[in-house]
Amino acid sequence: MNKRTVIITGASRGIGRATAMRFAQEGYNVLINYLHSEQEAMRLLEMLKKSNCNAHAFKADVSKHGQVDDMVSFCVEVFGALDVIVNNAGVAQTRLFTDITQDDWRTVTDINLGGVFNCCQCAAKHMIKNKKGRIINISSVWGMVGASCEVHYSAAKAGVIGLTKALAKELAPSGIRVNCIAPGIIETDMLKDYTEAELGELKKEIPSGRLGTPFDVAECALYLADEKNDYITGQVISPNGGFVV
Ligand code: NAP
What we know:
Layout: E1 5-8, H1 14-25, E2 29-34, H2 38-50, E3 55-59, H3 65-79, E4 84-87, H4 102-130, E5 133-138, H5 141-145, H6 151-171, E6 176-181, H7 196-204, H8 214-225, E7 236-237
Parallel strand pairs: 1-2, 1-4, 2-3, 4-5, 5-6, 6-7
Helix pairs in contact: 1-8, 3-4, 4-6
């Protein structure tokens, strides 16, 4: 049985939740990170424990370096290791460029890009000592091609891709692989501001004919976490049904 340990940020809902479920099924020890959705995180924790997964939950705001540091220390203390981190926590916001306030810019970049920086740095300190580890950062197709009315989100997600590539080069000699997943349109709470009609229109633009599911993304994360896939680093894999190729 696989007894590697994974931290998944933003695991209370959506893609993070599905990723936690899949890693648990594969025998990983799982640390569920959440911020506001405590009930959802506790429900997931109970579910994973019932399926015999060694799991814990930890509340931390990924945009706060100290809280992330405490989360990584907690992980190493309770599980004795940190092998994989999936930096998934994120927020989206739709605004005309001219309406984006300084606060909007800071919030969206602090969480989506600053959060990835904090998690990579705190995890890397631990992984470098062990000369192995897997870092998986969640970007977005909008970080690849840009989205109108999501300039701050697109910029942050493009930053995640740049960070991944640079860090992959720096950490490869230490045995650490750093990769990025840039999902297309995935059915989660993040789509709640879209109308049914808008989702229908988007679906028409996806050659595979459907929106993505959180499990489509989780499978990519499992692949990148697998020790067998040791020669893949600094890459961006985009589960998007052919929407962006
Ligand atoms: P979601 O359902 O809205 O879930 C977002 C998760 O992020 C929640 O678990 C939330 O935790 C957590 N989170 C937000 N801010 C946080 C913070 N400061 N600290 C810790 N956790 C925080 O969204 P999703 O669709 O699953 O998105 C997951 C990731 O995929 C994001 O990075 C998103 O940008 C990316 N993505 C999504 C799509 C899509 O179409 N859905 C497409 C491309 C990329 P709490 O609720 O506990 O606060």
